[in-house]
Design brief:
This protein is of the alpha+beta class. It is about 60% helix and about 10% strand. α3 links the parallel β2 and β3.
Length: about 140
């Protein structure tokens, strides 16, 4: 469970983490967030807004067993009640770490995000193979009708 906070710090430094209500809402409404995380001691109004953001952006929302102060300290802030992960790989990794600690609560989110991550990886690999073929001058395969 302790390895989640350094992973979130890494995502923050990589620019794949939106922190705070305004940025999280913008990322979710733009359909760029994969996972929204809430501190366990977040206010009721914050929780309500987070669920609204998740519905608007079809984002997975999880309450994690860390306080606002613990989340904030891993991000170099005083506190943080809400954050959104905008990279599918980081989101799948966080969900996996949470599911290892509590599979009953976080297992479904882990499965969903690992599927999304696998599809994204497949698309990336296909794009790289296509670009490699273009560089080598191979003709495109014609689709049969």
């Amino acid at each position: 469970m302790d390895s989640i906070l350094p992973l979130l710090g890494l995502a923050f430094r990589a620019g794949r983490l939106a922190v705070g209500e305004e940025p999280v809402g913008a990322v979710c409404r733009a359909h760029k967030a994969y996972l929204l995380l809430l501190a366990h001691d977040a206010a009721d109004n914050t929780i309500r807004r987070a669920h609204h953001f998740c519905q608007a952006g079809k984002t997975v929302c999880l309450t994690i067993p860390f306080s606002k102060d613990e989340l904030g300290s891993c991000l170099g802030r005083t506190s943080c009640a809400m954050l959104a992960v905008s990279d599918v790989g980081f989101a799948a990794a966080v969900a996996e770490k949470l599911a290892q600690a509590d599979p009953e609560t976080y297992g479904q989110a882990r499965d969903l995000l690992s599927q999304k991550s696998a599809r994204a990886k497949k698309r990336r690999d296909e794009t790289r193979a296509h670009e490699k073929n273009l560089r080598r001058g191979k003709p495109r395969k014609e689709k049969s009708k």
